[in-house]
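Why DNA-binding response regulator, NarL/FixJ family, contains REC and HTH domains? Reviewers of the renewal asked for a concrete example.
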Amino acid sequence: MDRVIRVAAVDDDRMLLEGLDAWLSPVADLRLVRVASTVEQLLREPTEPADVVLLDLVLRDGSEAAQNVRRLVAAGRRVLVLSVWARPDQVVATFAAGCSGYVTKDHDLAALAAAVREVAAGRPVFSSELAFACLGDERPTRPRLSPRERGVLLAYASGMTLTATARHLGIKPETARTYLDRVKAKYHDLGRPSRTKLDLAARVREDRLQTG
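Here is what the prediction returned.
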């Protein structure tokens, strides 16, 4: 028999987790070794390491999906995202963060098991439906920032406080806050984390933004 693939699941739907346990138990080469309601809980209470983590896209703790993927990948896990949505921006964002696959929850057990096996083998899982949806998505992966929004982003992400950013640009702190909120909203609409200063610094690096 092929090696057993150890699976963990992060989802805050207890009924779904219990169903998943029963669902996978007859599958000889897959074994559910850990469930958690948040990524924080999964990483804080390590048990038997998982080969593949099934990650729900939207969790009640308010965590960003892409950030959850990054944390799991940094911990050495391969991630298969599960979602009721096939939103192109979320698909792009989670793959950019390092996930190995994205499957919608309307698939049956055979399809999920096949996806887990592909991810465990180091192969990406990306359904034809999701590929078609992403091809039809005309939104850019980088937000369109005005010169003032760009200036606030660069100054603030460099480590300045919002007050120092405003002083640097010769504007009022409340005006700087307005521009910063617009920047965050534009990144959020693209499914890219923008909640903290560290998030914004990462977006500056990824987009290779420079002054001038």
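The chain has a mean pLDDT of 84. This is the kind of structural detail the renewal will allow us to pursue systematically.
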